Protein: SCP domain-containing protein
Organism: Skeletonema marinoi
Amino acid sequence: MVDSLAEAAAKRANDIAPTCGSGSATMDPWGENVGRTSFGVYDEALVSPDYVFDGWDNPEDHPLTFRQIMWRPTRYVGCASNITQMDSDGPFCHVAVCYYARPGNCNVNNETWLNETLADYSKCGPPCPDEGCY
């Protein structure tokens, strides 16, 4: 068990970065956003929070893939990133992972996504991270 959402996010980012793939499946009960970018030459713009968050803000016409970052019932967030060169002379991979408690995107369909996004409460997952509520 990890001690915090940030530690869980760091573990996940470290798992994904060597191949820039999806990483192994997790059984974590948290909401999750993962952003992956590969590039040949290091570029600060490609690892900025603005770049990552822009990728997590999907349009309204895809409500079932709407990103966890948008859910109002979320109260706790832990994020981490990893930048790894995939081969000794190969491209770099930047992975950013955020875990959320409570996750908000369960029991949602095309008709209910807006109400669920703006609700004060979610029945999804545990209400607090492992380190407790505060």
The chain has three helices and three strands. The chain has one domain: 5-118. The CA atoms of residues 33 and 98 lie 5 Å apart.
